[in-house]
Specification:
Largest sheet: 8 strands, mixed
CATH topology of the largest domain: Rossmann fold
Number of helices: 18
Structural class: alpha/beta
CATH architecture of the largest domain: 3-Layer(aba) Sandwich
Strand content: 15-25%
Shape: globular
Distance between the termini: 18 Å
Number of domains: 2
């Protein structure tokens, strides 16, 4: 395929290596290790490639058929699968043990193709660990985005004594020290990097994730309900995300019990749809939630649909009265942004990125973490005031317009210009 148009045929375009080791941007969403980061890497790479930047994404092969595969995703845009331990799904703590193998395979690939990269953009701490090893050898600056931070996970999960977390935090601390620039998704993450990792504030840029405004946009909710098979009389509330304890799905269940005890009329025709995970062959957390649903007698109200494709997901958002995100921690909350872009209010914990993204009383509501009573009150308030629900949906859509991927890429390219890549883009030279 021909290269995308570049401003001048004799100028050398930027070559960018993106590292997303533990999860592929093309992996199906809703799994144990897939979510907002996958979407972020995929969309940023696409938008940069459309601008004529040559982007190679490197990830680990998680199955035998992926091993050594090179996919041309679009002009200037490739996805390369490299060995990193057994070619099967692995926990991140196990992947860490095989990072040297990944690094060697990456070096061999680049050498065989006679490549050189102007910069490295690494995602999550595992990728950052490899990036800082390559930084000096390649003479290429590194920009790092963590997506989640080990210190914050520890504070929430109270598992400070876990040796795997200790390794992660040591790795993150080293990455913060060595990497050239750090991308923080929110002011909250910026502060966490300063306070918990003693990061140099001068090399941190706050650049949030974005949303595909063509895919996620308002549309007729009646038609959306027809597409996903939801009865028109049903008052639909939605949860979308990985099924893991810190997502606090059980807080939604407890809130439903509160509603049943205080406003049973609101529970009539109320449907809670849980999107994510595998309800048939679910892991321990999925099985726990399914058992809890039965114990609390909520099988009529709650259904588990498992992971859904990006093609149908917008219709779920459009059909819903609200998205519920009761998480213990969210570094940003891209699911909330997708719902808002579709004109759907969000009820979310006032944590991490959600504290900035969701505007309380304007685009949705904030609730305290693990307080089902407060969540129940906000659900009741939203479902019993359709005018307020409509106003919040409109405000949410207007706010989401500021997060288009093109605007996010503009900000990222400013960061890469600060790494010294702009002179290489604008100077004459032979492409290798």
């Amino acid at each position: 395929m021909p290269d995308a148009e570049f401003p001048h045929p004799n100028l050398e375009p930027l070559r960018l290596a993106i590292l997303s080791i533990h999860t592929s941007p093309e992996a199906a969403l809703g799994g144990k290790k897939t979510g907002g980061m996958n979407v972020y890497v995929r969309e940023v790479a696409r938008d940069m490639a459309r601008r004529g930047i040559r982007v190679d994404i490197f990830t680990r092969a998680a199955s035998p058929d992926e091993l050594g595969k090179v996919l041309d995703l679009s002009p200037n845009h490739r996805l390369i699968y490299l060995p990193c331990g057994p070619a099967q799904p692995l926990d991140t703590s196990v992947i860490f043990l095989h990072l040297n193998q990944f690094k060697k395979a990456l070096e061999d690939f680049v050498e065989a193709e006679h490549m050189r990269y102007d910069a490295i953009y690494s995602h999550y701490w595992l990728s950052g660990w490899v990036a800082i090893q390559l930084r000096k050898k390649w003479d290429a600056p590194v920009a790092q985005m963590f997506h989640t931070l080990g210190h914050m996970k520890n504070r929430i999960a109270d598992n400070r004594r876990n040796p795997d977390n200790d390794i992660r935090i040591r790795g993150e601390t080293e990455i913060v020290k060595i990497t050239d620039r750090i991308i923080a998704a929110t002011p909250a993450e910026y502060t966490q990097l300063l306070m918990l990792y003693r990061a140099d504030r001068r090399k941190i840029d706050i650049v949030p994730p974005g949303v595909d405004l063509k895919r996620f946009s308002p549309a007729d909710p009646v038609e959306a309900r027809r597409k996903i098979g939801i009865d028109e009389a049903c008052k639909l509330l939605l949860f979308v995300g990985r099924i893991e304890p810190l997502k606090a799905v059980d807080t939604i269940f407890d809130a439903l019990v509160e509603i049943r005890n205080t406003r049973p009329d609101v529970l009539d025709d109320l449907c809670i749809t849980i999107i994510g995970g595998d309800p048939v062959q679910g892991d321990e957390e999925m099985q726990r939630l399914q058992a809890l649903r039965e114990m609390l007698d909520l099988e009529k109200q709650v259904r588990f649909l498992g992971a859904q494709s990006q093609d149908i997901l917008p219709d779920f958002y459009r059909a819903a009265s609200a998205l519920i995100m009761p998480s213990d921690y969210e570094s940003f909350g891209m699911v909330a942004l997708e719902a808002m872009a579709c004109g759907t209010p969000v009820i979310a914990s006032e944590v991490g990125g959600l504290a900035y993204l969701v505007q309380d009383g304007i685009t949705g509501y904030h609730v305290p973490v693990r307080e089902p009573g407060a969540l129940a009150q906000r659900i009741i308030a939203l479902l019993t005031d359709t005018a307020q629900q409509a106003r919040m949906g409109e405000a949410a859509h207007e706010l989401a317009k500021h997060y288009s991927w093109s605007k996010i890429t503009d900000k990222l390219l400013e960061t890469f210009a600060m790494l010294g890549t702009r002179p290489r883009i604008l100077s004459m030279g032979s492409s290798s």
